[in-house]
Structures are given as structure tokens and as C-alpha cells.
Write a structure and sequence with these properties.
mainly beta; seven-stranded antiparallel sheet; two-stranded antiparallel sheet; about 65% strand
């Protein structure tokens, strides 16, 4: 089964549901917005660390060699206007 988190964010301090990823994964950021979108990673699901940020729509491929939790969102103070549409996930490896 695929591991995917999606969200349409319209406020600061909002994130996707965390997903645990390993190997290659995709990140899609779309919409019309004025905001800084931050990708965060956690080893324990409690303490989150910034790993990347975007100020415009983007299509990215990431890689993590071990299972870790990721979430994507807008931190406090990083939102001005619009809707950020996010899709973060990996496909089911059985279909490759």
C-alpha cells in the first residue's frame, strides 16, 4: 500500500499528517500562495527538524536510507495568503 500524506493549507502552524518513509519519495507543492513551506523530519515523532523549505510551487524527489517520519507545512509566522496544496509520499514497492 502506498504511503501518502496530502493537505491543503491556508494558515500558519499547519502541517500534513506525518508519514514514515524509506527510500525514494515524492514531494509536490502546488497552489497560489505567499508562504514558506517547510519539510521536517523526525526520528521519534516528537522532535521535528527542518530539512528544506520552499517559497513557490515545486516538484521534488527525496531519498532517506532509513525509516523516518516526515511532515510538510507552514510554520508560525511563515504564512501570508493563498492555499498550499501538498502531496508527500512513496508508492507501493510491489508495483515496481
Amino acid at each position: 500500500m502506498a504511503t501518502i500524506a496530502t493537505a491543503s493549507l491556508t494558515a500558519q502552524n499547519t502541517f500534513t499528517t506525518p508519514v514514515t518513509l524509506e527510500g525514494y519519495f515524492n514531494l509536490s507543492i502546488s497552489g497560489v500562495f505567499t508562504a514558506t513551506v517547510t519539510v521536517q523530519r523526525s526520528h521519534d515523532g516528537v522532535n521535528w527538524h527542518d530539512v528544506d523549505s520552499f517559497n513557490a510551487p515545486a516538484e521534488e524527489v527525496g531519498f532517506d536510507p532509513e525509516y523516518r517520519s516526515y511532515r510538510v507545512g507552514i510554520k508560525t509566522g511563515d504564512y501570508t495568503s493563498g492555499t498550499v496544496v501538498i502531496r508527500l509520499g512513496e508508492e507501493d514497492r510491489e508495483h515496481h
